[in-house]
Amino acid sequence: MAMGGGASFPFQWPSDPGLDAVALPPLPTVVPDAATGVAYYAAADMHAAMPTAAALPDFAAALAAMRREEEEAAGIRLVHLLMSCAGAVEAGDPASASAHLADAHAALAAVSPSSGIGRVAVHFTAALSRRLFPPTPSPPTPATQPPAEAAADHAFLYHHFYEAGPYLKFAHFTANQAILEAVHGCAHVHIIDFNLMQGLQWPALIQALALRPGGPPSLRLTGIGPPSPPGRDDLRDVGVRLADLARSVRVHFSFRGVAANRLDEVRPWMLQVSQGEAVAVNSVLQLHRLVADNSDDPPAAAPIDAVLECVASLRPRVFAVVEQEADHNKAGFLDRFTEALFYYSAVFDSLDVASGGGGAVDAAAEAYLEREICDIVCGEGSERRERHEPLRRWRDRLGRAGLAGVPLGANALRQARMLVGLFSGEGHCVEEADGCLTLGWHGRPLFSASAWRAEENNHQSDSNADASSGGGSEESNISCSS
Amino acid sequence: MGGPAASPAPRQPEQADVTELELRIQLLGGGVVGYNINDNADILAEILARLDGRSLAAAACVCRLWAAVARRDAVWEALCLRHVGPAPPAGPATRAVVAALGGYRRLYRLCLGPALDRLGRAAQAHHHHHHQVARAHHQHRLSLSLSLSLFSIDCYERLGAGTSAGRKPPPPSSLLFLCKPVDVS
To answer: For residue A413, which residues of chain B lie inside 8 Å, CB to CB?
Structure first.
């Protein structure tokens, strides 16, 4: 296990995760010393200077370099241990898995918790141990907490995650730009938000609509969210605040809250889409929770299909979708684990830099991500909700549901780049591909934003003033709500 | 040397000197034709509108008149519009919206100022690395629409802090990220 030495090893995530693909540093070669016959190790590729009898600063620098490499080596060792543990879990070998896990715990001590791999490894190790040794119900998990408290906790973590990194801001701003462009010229706009939370996405859109050339439209917002505990109406509170803001900038605004625990419980008739409205549907990190297990064969009818059908039946001007760009819905545990490990370490790295570097990441933002990690590692079957899928698979799915892609345009790209550039300019990047925008960290895509609309049928017109198409969609709404 | 009556027929080479001296004497004497910067608040506003953010804030500490003039939103509007580009024609609608959200002075203090500082630091770091003058470049990396969007989110969050039940502490402002030091190395 002597992976130390003077070899320079750029700590880079391999593009194809898997034990075979991990490039191990070249083993130190043994070179017998001709003079004294004592073998000493010389690295194949010497990068750091070995401590010579030189001045003290050189020695200190060399020592620091060696320490860095030791840490990197320890990090690699830790990753191997975690992956071996995951492999043992997949193979159904709990004894070997817990042995690897114990080793991983020990290796964690050698890795600094503020470095790249250290922090994310803590969470994955904790998740693995939770999976192998499920805790007794006394500590409240998100699943067993009373739903009201869980929702409040989630809102708190979500808000901190919103503040800490550019991801949610990127999502909101890009979706808003897509909506703004799609409802250009419409006098009545109805937005359906699949997950209202505190409504942080909408002030910017309200302001942009207020300044729209030609004057603001009349805006309706339907916010979907979990039911509130008795005595409170969180959805309505958010609506009231948004209405205050809209009133101050003179945008005609009305709000309606739809309380539902799951998106597939929402029926089209609940949304009360009126004739003549331009409908925009907004989904930020919601669709992946509705996807079913890939392992079912033939794949069971998933809630996602019902929801997409509902969306398509609304005939929206635009359906803005933002999702994580990762493949965490693989059937095999080891594959999923490895993918998640690489994805979340990129996210944690980027969060670290966005928070100013030096390990000062907001604990609540980290806890938000930790919940996702726990869900991906520990959840199985219907328990697992974080089923992230890459954009190409969303494209297929949305295409099958009768939705066509709408390219996001240069304005959205420019705005996203400006926004992301306000954070540490180094590292975060916004790329455009096939009309979709992707926010990435050092080339590793993390979140993708895209826009869709209902495909044109030959007898339906796109105009929202067409009476016959309005009538047709109403009928289909009624028939859907069985 | 006497009063204005003593000014002789101006001799050509010294005409400028005489005129300036005459005016100086009139100023000291509180004459009608004087140009004191404090005489006309609108002219003072025009001048202050050409300052940068920090200087403007410092100018507000000079005296009560300057504090009042520096508080005019039009002065901060000029400053804000100078720093965002390409400059759209900011009509009365924009002014009304910005006023509703809190005014240009607040927009600069909360959003534009910190953002420009941050971009300036980034540009300087790049300047050291790449030996390019990126200052002009960075000034136009902010658009008015983006700043207004961020501003509206902040305004909305403060709305919520005022009316939410005392159960939770007020939520952190989403513009705080602009004030955090950023490692641009």
So the answer is: none
Which residues from A are below 8 Å from B179, CB to CB?
none
* Residue A235: closest CA among A253, A257, A255: A257
Pairs of residues, one from chain A and one from chain B, whose beta carbons lie less than 8 Å apart: 103
Closest CA to A346 of A448, A449, A442, A447: A442
Interface contact A204-B184, CB threshold 8 A: no
- Residue of chain A with shortest Cα separation from B151: A204
Q: Which residues from chain A sit within 8 angstroms of residue B159, using beta carbons?
A: 241, 244-245
A244 and B159 within 8 Å at the Cβ level: the answer is: yes
Domain A150-325+388-454 has CATH 3.40.50.970: no
Measure CB to CB from residue A241 to each of B96, B115, B160 and give the nearest one.
Answer: B160
Interaxial angle between packed helices A303-313 and A391-400, expressed in degrees from 0 to 180 and rounded to the nearest 10 = 60
Q: Which residues, including other chains, have CB under 8 Å from residue A87's CB and lie 6 or more apart?
A: A19, A334
In chain B, where the domains are located: 37-71, 76-159
How far does A257 lie from chain B, in Å, by closest CA? 18
Q: CA separation (Å) from A414 to A3, A410, A468, B58?
A: 45, 6, 39, 34
At B97, phi and psi to the nearest 5?
-65, -45
CB contact under 8 A, B184 and A206: no
Per the confidence metrics, is the pTM higher than 0.90? no
DSSP tag of B36? -
> In angstroms, rounded to a whole number, what is the distance separating the alpha carbons of residues A403 and A454?
5
Cβ–Cβ contact A160 with B under 8 A: yes
ipTM summary value: 0.74
Q: How far apart, in whole angstroms, are the C-alpha atoms of residue A280 and residue A180?
A: 10
Q: How far apart are CA A49 and CA A8, in angstroms?
A: 11
In angstroms, rounded to a whole number, what is the distance separating the alpha carbons of residues A172 and A208? 13
Taking only the tens place, the pLDDT of each residue in A87-138 is 988 888 888 888 888 888 888 887 776 666 788 888 999 999 888 888 776 5
> pLDDT of A30-69, one tens digit each?
444 444 443 344 443 444 444 444 457 788 888 888 887 8
Query: CA of A67 to nearest chain B CA: how many angstroms apart?
Result: 22
Kindly state the helix (H) or strand (E) to which residue A433 belongs, with its residue range.
Answer: strand A428-433
- Residue B86: is the preceding peptide bond cis (ω within 30°)? yes
Chain A residues with CB under 8 Å of B151 CB are 207
- Going from N- to C-terminal start, the domains of chain A cover 69-133+330-382, 150-325+388-454
Give the Cα separation of A450 and B91 in Å (integer). Answer: 32
Helix, strand, coil percentages, rounded to 5, for chain A: 50, 15, 35
Instruction: Please tell me what DSSP assigns to residue A263.
Output: G
DSSP per-residue string spanning A243-262: HHHHHHTT--EEEEEEE-SS
Measured between beta carbons, the chain A residues lying within 8 angstroms of B122 are: 421, 424-425
For residues A184 and A148, the model is more confident at A184
Ramachandran area for residue A133 (φ above 0: left; ψ -120 to 50: alpha; else beta): beta
What is the arithmetic mean of pLDDT over B157-181? 56
